[in-house]
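Teaching assistant here, posting this on the class forum so everyone can see the example we discussed in section. The complex has two components, and the goal was to see what a joint structure prediction looks like when all of them are supplied at once.
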Amino acid sequence: MEAIILQILDGLNKGSAYALIALGLTLIFGTLGVVNFAHGALFMIGAFCAVTISRVLSISQIVLDETRTDFLGKPLQVKVPYVDQWFGPEMGQLIVDWSVPISLLVTIPIMIIIGITMERGLIKHFYKRPHADQILVTFGLAIVLGEVIKYFYGANPVPTPAPSAFVGSLDVGVLIGLDPFTVVYPYWRLIYFGFAAIIITAVFAFLQFTTFGMVVRAGMQDRETVGLLGINIDRKFTIMFAIAACVAGVAGAMYAPINAPNYNMGMDFLVLSFVVVVVGGMGSLGGAVLSGFLLGILQSLASMTEVIDIAPGINQVIIYLVAIIVLLTRPRGLMGRRGVMED
Amino acid sequence: MTKKTPELNRRGFIKATAAGALVTGAPTIFTSKAYGYANDPGSASSVTLGFNVPQSGPYADEGADELRAYELAVEHLNGGGDGGMLNTFSSKALSGAGILGKEVKYVTGDTQTKSDAARASARSMIEKDGAVMITGGSSSGVAVAVQALCQEVGIIFMAGLTHSNDTTGKDRKANGFRHFFNSYMSGAALAPVLGNAYGKDRKAYHLTADYNWGYTTEEAVTQATEAMGWETVNTVKTPLKETDFSSYIAPVLQSDADVLVLNHYGGNMVNSLTNAVQFGLRDKMVNGKQFEIVVPLYSRLMAKGAGANVKGIYGSTNWHWSLTDEGSKAFVKSFGEKYGFPPSQAAHTCYVQTLLYADACERAGSFDPCAVVEALEGFEFDGMGNGKTLYRAEDHQCFKDVLVVKGKENPDNEFDLLEVVEVTPVDQVMYEPNHPQMGGAEATLGSCNAG
């Protein structure tokens, strides 16, 4: 029982990342009709925004310590962060320690700028081209972005720790009346789940309760009619692309402490996220979120030793197996509606 | 007197074209046989070595460090720099005048850490560039594949970083040589240290990368630890492409295990170790004992990715820059002054392999692969950073002391991540050439191929 609770918690955590990426993918596909294979790269760039801010906050003055030597026997170069000098050692350490949450303040504007630049500079030229062209150009862009990041940050993962206040695990088992240490889960992963829930709610509220959101929803249903009403739907859709990029970016930034970011992390999530979108139903935002969490939980449960013993290798194929079953029984996905994305 | 001009007819033209195509189009690998062995440099003033390393993909940083070491080795072989380990190497056949009086040049290939790509780049360097030797690595799958290719075409393969038993075990080849240590040696060196540190009544849970190297490491560590009394509670294979190991770590909490062994390397190791620490495994008490984590194969470059999570965690390594023998000091000085940071174990093994190959050619008086094989087989040397070392004739594996290391609690600088806790003597990691973990009695080198 405890093992299942633990895997469900883990599934919710995995699902949070899937749902956030799939939500952005669906927004872009639903509004612009573009299959964006560079969406995983936006997640990766978000993570590297956290890495960059962490490094920027740690920029140091080099002081030679004559009492100690480096690996060549020369006086050791000690790095003293400028923030320590400007704000005092305690405050300086606190700022460096909280670099990941702080990085969100920078990630949001950067991702909006990247989103708008990407849409206006490249994607808009492919609206009327076949989906195959869109896939090729966005996939190419994803490779280029990955290589650029690798050029500056190397191929190895870059550790980006969470604030020390959130290092360690919460004994969830005790909270629900189980024995101590039976169900423990890392603080930062729980925070990530909460963060994802807030972002998802905010996006839904924005689309549901604002005039802008209403226009976008109308545009998703019938772009032509909205245009005929004199509304500049293209501009609205550019903003939606920027919002989708922003969602992927902040999802990546907050993910950095969970797994040390590397240049390829976007690709790791990309295919899974497309499966999530297809299972949820093309163009359905609710479907993307639902299937994100569902597939995350199934993937975690399939990794249980008891399950692998019965069906070896199931952990590697479960998501695709579910996708096949869903597509065979509900070809439009879990929440796909008739007539959406079918013309 | 009139001279009859031969007319070019269709038949003659076709014959001439075919002959021309044969001569100019045939890869050097075929024409070279005229000299007796593949890619014989003959009377050329230079000789070309082929450095086949991952320049893209997940091990690109390790590949870059290997390439730095190769460039340094070439510089030293040609008499440049401070000579590095040429000054400490027990064999004095190398004088800094290239190899057999020929200037050493090199070409590089990108393995991408994919067997197919690695074979293609090695083949290109052999056939188009006339490389007399191929060296490089960072993956055992790649090493085994490239070694087999070199055997087929009659070129010497000096393996870089490859740790799987199979490279000099069941897949050993007469034309292939490995300086790096292997999974068996890691298990044999680690087990006694773990026994002393954590006791002999422990229950281990293994997470293993689902490929060749993972299997041999798991087998080596389970056998070595079980022999001293540990129980193996479970062994779980994890997909090589996995990035989030949380769902594999979670069951460890539910198990009765009090030690987690991570048979992971590279990004897998960074992520699984980070995840294990996040889940509070190191703060956990099980069976009245502190829960512990072990990483059988450490790499400083990878340890850097795991940050503070490596502190206090045991593992093994082939070499470490902090060693104080004359060979290591000379290499660290040369490398550090040229590049500004200390070399990795991958860089060390690649540098040493290049020098060992060059030295073997000098002693053999030839680049003939079979003469080089003869010179390397049973060769004993010192001064290369690992103490006295033997290139065993039966399997072409180097036998030397093995380092057991631990993540350093209070590093002095960004490179000071691991501390050597024990230098395990070579006798303790020695095994028979037909050991079951090494392919048993069926494993043979075959005969050397000169192309």
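For the discussion questions: Confidence is low (pLDDT under 50) at residues 1-8, 20-34 of chain B. The two ends of chain B are 51 Å apart (CA to CA). Think about how each of these relates to the inputs above.
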